Amino acid sequence: MTGVQTCALPISLNYHRIGTPQGSLLDWDLWSATEEDFASQVKALKQHFDVIGLEDLPQVFRTLGQRWSTKQRFVLITFDDGYRDNYDAAFPILREHSVSGTFFITTGFVGDRQIAWWDEIAWIIRSARADVVEVFLDGCSTRMRLPIDRPNRSEEHTSEVQSHSCISYAV
């Protein structure tokens, strides 16, 4: 049959933060897209996919194995951790394009001023006044010399520190 194929599984696109990291003392690696890029991505997804929500998955999976038109491709847009910019930046864009998104909220942080450990490490490294930070990685003490340009100092150091399973730190 021409123009007909069996259905593929839905694609899930995961975002963390929407906006620009410049000026933030938190982990820059979690910024998934600028607002402008995210708006362009959502527009393209809407044009080329059926954007579905979690509530649509049971129906999509019930029909797996049936033959669908090649134009039926499904995508979910999801957000991890529940950063404030998900609501302030991403939600209005989703609403503007009439597509749904699924937000996975880190409930332990709701109503609390606590931040995630990866953001705390980035904050410590970016805001440290010292040029040397002693980091305890997997039970071993490691001294790290930090670059002078504070706005960019965290990128390589944060990634190095976060790659270890047991972390404590002192400045």
User: Order of SSEs, N→C?
Assistant: EEEEHEHEEHEHEEHE
Number of strands: 11
What structural class is derived from the secondary structure elements?
alpha/beta
Mean pLDDT: 76
Spatial separation of the terminal alpha carbons: 67 Å
Strand percent estimate: 25-35%
Radius of gyration from the CA trace?
21 Å
Total helices: the number is 5
Verbal overview:
By secondary structure, the protein is α/β, with parallel strands linked by helices. It contains 5 helices and 11 strands. Strands 2, 5, 7 and 8 form a 4-stranded parallel beta sheet that branches. The protein has a 3-stranded antiparallel beta sheet with strand order 10-9-11, covered by helices on one side. A two-stranded antiparallel sheet has the order 1-6. β7 (74-81), α3 and β8 (102-105) form a beta-alpha-beta unit. The radius of gyration is 21 Å and the shape is elongated. Mean pLDDT is 76; it is low at 161-171.
